[in-house]
Amino acid sequence: MRRHCSLKRVSVQLVDCRKTSGMVDSANSQLLSERSSSEEVNQHLYNEKKSISNDKLLIKYQHKDSGKKRYNCLDCGSRFITLNALKVHQRIHTGEKPCSCDQCGKQFADTGTLFQHQRIHTGEKPYACDQCGNRFARSGTLIKHQRIHTGEKPYRCLDCGSSFATSFALTRHHRIHTGEKPYGCDQCGKIFAQSGNLMAHKRIHNGEKPYGCGQCGKRFTQPSALASHQRIHTGEKPYGCGQCGKRFTQPSALASHQKIHTGEKPYGCDQCAKRFSYSRSLANHQRIHTGESSSGCK
């Protein structure tokens, strides 16, 4: 900039001197020389800057194209292609949530998650299922939904081979094998493998029965209990015995019935070792030992 400003001053002086000086040609020659030199320098700097800018751009795209994950998280070892992606990831470890919803104030670690959340307020559901037309706020939810139509179950249990449509369902199932019960009741200390079971259990303490029958008004703590009850009104018996064809309103009733065919007697008396197919039969039998029944043990 100094050189440019200096040249302007020389130019003005030459215009003023034309009327009084005979050195115009010499001055003009000097000006043209300096101007030419300046232009060469400016062009060189411009080309150099453009080259550096292009090189940076090229490197940036080369990193993306090559898929090289050059940025490493020191906390967990995860690797990322861009520095920005690493910085966003690190908020998992730091707990930083700089993006907040202007509707409800809820905070998020990145703008993408914030935008997804805001669809709760706007009602926007941009992702549509091409099979049934159902719409979703998140692309991930659409992908999971589409597995209903495709039957795809990409998540497989290494212990028993069972397959599941979502990683969450696999994690929940895996607790059968590990015995893990991470959800505890703060009222009585009882623990559960699933959060839904804990929520249903808590209704024992608070007396909440949010599910009501439209026919008789009876209320229930769980939707499954309501569905079973409603079969009294509809007469529906969806559970059929494969041996004799007898049908039942509840799966537990079918399982109990099937013991007739299998001869299974899982309930044993700890007094005389007699075994029974049903828990109620065992309870009736045990009254003989306690003296509640006058009948002898046969």
Automatic annotation (TrEMBL):
The keyword Transcription regulation is annotated on this UniProt entry: yes
Domain of life per record: Eukaryota
InterPro entries: Znf_C2H2_sf, Znf_C2H2_type
One Gene Ontology cellular component: nucleus
Residue ranges crossing the lipid bilayer per the database entry: none
Span of domain C2H2-type: 71-98, 99-126, 127-154, 155-182, 183-210, 211-238, 239-266, 267-294
Keyword Acetylation on entry: no
Cell compartment(s), UniProt: Nucleus
GO molecular function annotation: DNA binding; zinc ion binding
Keywords: DNA-binding, Metal-binding, Nucleus, Repeat, Transcription, Transcription regulation, Zinc, Zinc-finger
Protein family membership: Belongs to the krueppel C2H2-type zinc-finger protein family.
Protein name: C2H2-type domain-containing protein
Organism of derivation: Umbra pygmaea (Eastern mudminnow)
Source taxonomy: Eukaryota, Metazoa, Chordata, Craniata, Vertebrata
